[in-house]
Amino acid sequence: MQNSEYNFSKIEPKWQKFWADNATFKANDFDSRPKFYILDMFPYPSGAGLHIGHPEGYTASDAYKRFKISQGYNVLHPMGWDAFGLPTEQYAIKTGKHPKETTKTNVARFKEQLTKIGLNYDWDREINTTDPEYFKWTQWIFIQLFKKGLAYVEEKPVWFCPDLGTVLANEEVIQTNEGPISERGNFSVERRPIRQWVLKITDFADNLLAGLDSLDWPDSTKRLQTNWIGRSEGSRVTFAIDGYSESIDVFTTRPDTLNGATYLVLAPEHPLVSKLQSNEQAEIIKNYINKAKLKSDLERAELNKDKSGVPLGAFAINPINQKRIPIWVADYVLISYGTGAIMAVPAHDDRDFDFAKKFDIEILQVIDDEGSAKKNTDGTLAEAYTKEGPLMNSADLNGQDSKHAKQLVIELLTQMKSGKIEVNYKLRDWLFSRQRYWGEPFPVLWVTSKDYEKINQLFKPNGNPVESVIDGEIRLAVVIPEKQLPLKLPEIKNYKPSPDGQSPLSKAESWLNVYFNVSSGEIYKEPKKGAIQAKRETNTMPQWAGSCWYYLRYIDPNNSERIIDSAKEAYWKTPDLYIGGAEHAVLHLLYARFWHHVLYEIGVVSSPEPFKKLFHQGIILGEDGEKMSKSRGNVVNPEVIIEAYGADTLRLYLMFLGPLEAMKPWNTKGIEGIARFLRKLWRLLIIDNNATLNPKIDLQNTSTLDAESERLLHQSIEKVSKDYESLSFNTAISQLMILLNQMTKLEQIPKNAYEVLLQLTAPLAPHISEELWRHLGYNSSITEAPWPKVNKEKLKSDSVKIIFQVNGKYRGDAILPKTYSKESTIELAKNHPRVQAQIIDKKILKEIYVPNKIVNFVIK
RNA sequence: GCCCAGAUGGCGGAAUUGGCAGACGCGCCGGAUUCAAAAUCCGGUACCUUCGGGUGUGAGGGUUCGACCCCCUCUCUGGGUACCA
């Protein structure tokens, strides 16, 4: 080894141990300093270990944490494990190894890797979603949702593969020309209705929409959630059916076009389809519906852009003009949105237009396009005119504008009791169960309707009972007493789902069948007096469940009595900054907000929104500019980088690659620049391997910096602080480089100045900074030293650079006193040789003068 | 199709109330040090040029004394979403 070598492999483990031993980053409940809660999206501890994407966001939050601590905040920055999930379960199916064991191994490895990067957390607050002491409270929240009537059960079609004997997620199914097949094994798969738990997130649609306004989130993410919730205002219109007592309700956002409705469409699943079909059509309709059944909503959209449908042979009566119009069944109408039926106005809706063209149905224009629509040579519409405008062909309403006509039509319909104003949402209720082993069991028992009546109201929902068919008979759901939580997973031998698509838990007979005391809720293995026979729910919760509320548990991780202590909740509140990938922009962030709104309503938390400020870190691509993946062979392993360059270099370089929020390619070559920066920082203080301090560093602080260096120092404090605050680490680092380069040129550096440089560098490169700080004679962590302050006086300058332009082009400049007059400045500009060369023999049309900035001559 | 984000040297990127385009770093070129290498240090590096200057921030137009920045149209790239009535 050479002289004065910066030996990161020796330094880094030493300081990692120091931080752990001294609990440097412990968050103190009720501390008098202002609190700051920084949250990272916690990882799924996969068997593959960390990839380079993890340290990116985590380094940013770690640096921000150290910065905030130095600024005097009591910082909470915890970490945990989102450890339920499919890969672990599949590993168990393959190897027979219990998911619990796999999780333990993986967590240990992740923890070790994080530590090596210098990511230090308050591990006393570590949580793990698979820990019964944690999921006890996930189950507790479910019980509250159940009791509030926000949970229900429904048969929902999901992908099922008979050959594999398992339910498949959407992404495990591949669409081919021959139909859908399984990703594993290429077996054919089918849609099969399976009993599912569903949460009524739609009850909170308006709250979730309104809550967005108050959040400091990226606009694009807010917009994504807004679109996902998809609120649309319109009206419900009731059509009578000619010759039947039933009627058909439709939802429309364009009641102004009601006179242009020339047919009605029912979704294939609509209950009236079977009643309304005429005999001669029955066979055709049956075939059509069967075909539609095999497709998911998604597929219908993708594979069936070409419209299809069958007329039912029945007719509806338009309430506004008594016109008799045909009723069709077509799969471009979805049962899951609105009423599952629409009024078709082909002149003013693209889909209806396509359909009407194909089946030669009347197209009646009722909105005047005023010459702006595309027309055929015969004057008919060549495509639907979907804009608003004055009405035509609409009797009394002719000439009214769409906006006003909408109101008039709704009023009219309301009077006639044939419709009303209505709001619809794209948002669907949340499918909240999986037929898997490795998830939270539902704290639910199924009982017969006869026994249900005897059961204490405590275990039942407010409102309607939850009902389902279990093993061929109707059963009702009750929850188990909170005292019995956590309800743990039973030990089983085979983690495979049963052949009928039920969860593996359905095979755990002794766990499954129990006796339930109707008043106390106690559960027995054997029949007892006062106890009825009951069957446990065999579904488990989805991975979202545990991640929906984990940020709350960090505040009070070991509380066995309550989900969270109110006083602690009042102190820490919700995260002040949440950093995580944009891939969770909708689902995770919406589900968590939903639960938080519910917890707010029942008084568990003191504010309705969980994440005030949100930041998405970007993705790091491989060196080839493609997404990192094993199959591409472009994966960068952080451990390899740490071995070669050290953790500080990795951290700095990750932040230096580009803006935190951007998607950016990794480039191993570029890391040299950062490595040089750190070596230079080291050598400026330590000149040999005996740790001799550089005599240029004035330890007595008797010297002063020259004015220019002094200004740069304070500019750097200002710039770096501002950049850290906004997580613009890339530009902060470039400023640190400029400052270090300047200091390197000096003959004498006051110790104070070097210390400022170290402190500014410390959040991003903590190990080397701590080590050098120690060499300067300090015994405590550098994060405990107060953050450097800007001296605004030092930033001031009496003179300023004025730019000289001719016709907006730079021709020269001059450093002038700020007090220099307009006239003198212009005079000086005119005399500048390069300016003069331009303006000589030319006429100056205009002289632009912006004080302290520019002079611009406009010439011809 | 719709919604969103983006396009700047060989590369990553910087520059915002509209005022020097290319900070900082990589790479490359030249030099110093060295027996040699590593490491280190110094200088150069958008393009063209007749060395006066000219041209340049995806393309075209516009507003302005002045546009990477604001407006319109288009191309391409990435992400999200998908018959939502």
Molecular structure report:
The protein is of the alpha/beta class and about 850 residues long. Among the domains are: about 140-200 and about 430-535, no CATH class; about 230-425, Isoleucyl-tRNA Synthetase, domain 2; about 795-860, Roll (Ubiquitin-like (UB roll)). Strands 10, 11, 12, 13, 14, 15 and 16 form a seven-stranded mixed sheet that branches. It is globular and about 100 Å long. It binds one RNA strand of 85 nucleotides through helix 7, strand 11, helix 10, strand 15 and helix 11.
Task: Summarize the entry for a quick read.
Among the domains are: 141-200 and 432-536, no CATH class; 232-424, Isoleucyl-tRNA Synthetase, domain 2; 797-859, Ubiquitin-like (UB roll). A hairpin with a 6-residue loop joins strand 13 (310-317) and strand 14. Strands 10, 11, 12, 13, 14, 15 and 16 form a seven-stranded mixed sheet that branches. Strands 19-20-18-23-21-22 form a six-stranded antiparallel sheet. A four-stranded parallel sheet has the order 2-1-24-25, with helices on one face.
